[in-house]
Design goal:
Blueprint lengths: L1 H24 L2 E8 L11 H15 L3 E6 L3 H18 L3 E8 L2 E4 L2 E4 L11 H5 L1 E2 H9 L5 E7 L29 E5 L16 H9 L7 H15 L7 E4 L13 H7 L20 H8 L4 H11 L2 H10 L6 H23 L2 H10 L6 H12 L31 E3 L8 E3 L73 E3 L4 E3 L2
Parallel strand pairs: 1-2, 1-3, 3-7, 7-8
Antiparallel strand pairs: 4-5, 5-6, 8-9, 10-11, 12-13
Helix pairs in contact: 6-7, 7-10, 9-11, 11-12, 12-13, 13-14
Length: 510
Amino acid sequence: MFRSAFRSALLATTLLAGVGASAAHAENRLALVIGESAYRAVPSLPNPANDARAMTTLLTEAGFMVTTASDLSQRELNQKIGDFTAAIAAKGPDTVALVFYAGHGLQIDGENYLVPVDVDPKREADIPLQAIRLNDIINTLNSVPTRSRIVLLDACRNNPFPALNGTVGRGLALVDTKTGAPGTFLSYSTSPGAEAQDGQGADSPYTEALLTAARTPGLPIEQAFKQVRVAVNKATNGQQTPWESSSLTEDFRFVAATSPSDANAALPPVATASNASNTSAPVKRSVEQWKRDLQGKKPDVAHDMIVADGTLEAYEAFDVLFTQSQFAPEVSGWVTRQRKMLAWNEAVTINTVVSYRNFLALYPDTDLSITARTMMERLRFKPVAQPQVAALCTPSTPTGPSSPSSPAPAMKKVDIGPQQAPVVIQQQTPSVVIQPPPVIIKRVDVTPPHPIDVPVRPVPPRRDVGSIGSVNSGPQFRPTYRPMGLAFGGGGGMMGRPMMMGGGGFRRRF
């Protein structure tokens, strides 16, 4: 019995330890790591190359097949992204694809661009031609089926191009992954609209914090980046706070749990004020709820809680409760910047003169004001498509050359005036084409190309009808003739004026 119990316990321990490892490596893992340091037109960045080497080691340990590249030109960077996407497609849909980029990044007209080392812009319009658009990278990754897509950007450093300093916004623009394909996790080294530091050590503050958090066994990626936010904020004295947007639908851990304690620690706890900084499943809370949670806390504890949460509601609650704390300027500045970037994202998404005018009404003098006014001018001079004028007469035949396969036209009723009985014409061939003009029709020519017999409904005799040709007036009037065509002249019978019907010599006056 003891031996049986021992075997059961050993089996359970082995299974528990192996579950985490197998869960972490059951899927295919591919990573592309890029470090852009040796810029040619501006001073080089010392840390991106170091960051790329350190991240390559971390991801290799985490079970990724890593492709590392440094100091890429625009053509080379595009080629690497294309090759990486092809490798993902070859591995199949059960693949986690991760891209890490360290280097310069800019926002132009609300779009984010990663900057290759060969960029040398003389004006703002050069960046879209020489750099790589972030949305293009994300869309390329979305083009192949994957389990998850993780994009980590240590790219929010200061703008190094003097010619652009007065015309582009600071940092990177906000990107909401929830509006795109699900399964994407996007992280910035600092919040939208802010600038990140390159760091004084071998690695940037963002990469250094990520190297520590990602190695924690069994830690879900959401909790790992909560720790990254707090660590970077403290290392930079509040000047830099990482930011992320997630639409992940699958659980992901860099390193699997290796023991029962790791597995228990990785379980998402209940979201309360005491453990809000460790919650893996995000729970949306209002400003009032955050006020209740933060009430009575010490400023430093409350500050760590809101930084780990990273939501506007948490920061707004702190901004109201701790106006006299040492963290007040940092938090107030974060709130103002986040509101501005949300308003800017809305203006760019709507992309109308009114949307940019509304943004300028709220933020008339910011780093994005020049861009907003530029976008308004472009929209004012953008040609507007003229609406199509609806035709007053719709023909029953096609408006192009008829073909043998075209169906025979239906009986068509032509109204030739309120005092004239309608004439029903049986068309024998589809070769007659009536092209509707875009204005009121004064003359309609429906003469067939060859003489045909057109049966005409007899018209009751009237006193003012005279005898013309072979047509007799009187009670026994039976107009029969072989017309050569039918024409409405002099404004047509539609206006009650004289009407001529040719081919048989028949005329009536009303």
